[in-house]
Amino acid sequence: MLNPSVNDLVEIVGSKYTLIVLAAKRAREINLGAIPTVDMPNSNKAVSIATQEIYEGKITYTRIKE
């Protein structure tokens, strides 16, 4: 089970699509050697660490309007 929940994360980022893209990009960065920004990750899996970082507000993004 994902902790924090998907519903909580969607409220933070605005849409499921944004959540998926943001978590995937950050998880790739972590897999390539980036240091997690959370002090005590709930898991050692990259996607779990990425979602925890999003939930804690340590990962930001900018929407580009075309």
Count of runs of 4 or more consecutive helical residues: 3
Distance between the termini: 36 Å
The tally of beta strands, per DSSP, is 0
Helix content: 40-55%
Q: Tell me the β content.
A: under 5%
Radius of gyration: 11 Å
Low-confidence runs (pLDDT<50, min 5 residues)? none
C-alpha geometry = globular
The secondary-structure element order is HHH
Report the mean per-residue pLDDT as an integer: 89
Largest sheet: none
What structural class should be given to the helix and strand makeup?
mainly alpha
Family: Belongs to the RNA polymerase subunit omega family.
EC number: 2.7.7.6
Protein name: DNA-directed RNA polymerase subunit omega
GO molecular function: DNA binding; DNA-directed RNA polymerase activity
Question: What this model shows, in words?
Answer:
This protein is mainly alpha-helical and 66 residues long. The chain contains three helices and no strands. Helix 2 (16-31) crosses helix 3. The radius of gyration is 11 Å and the shape is globular.
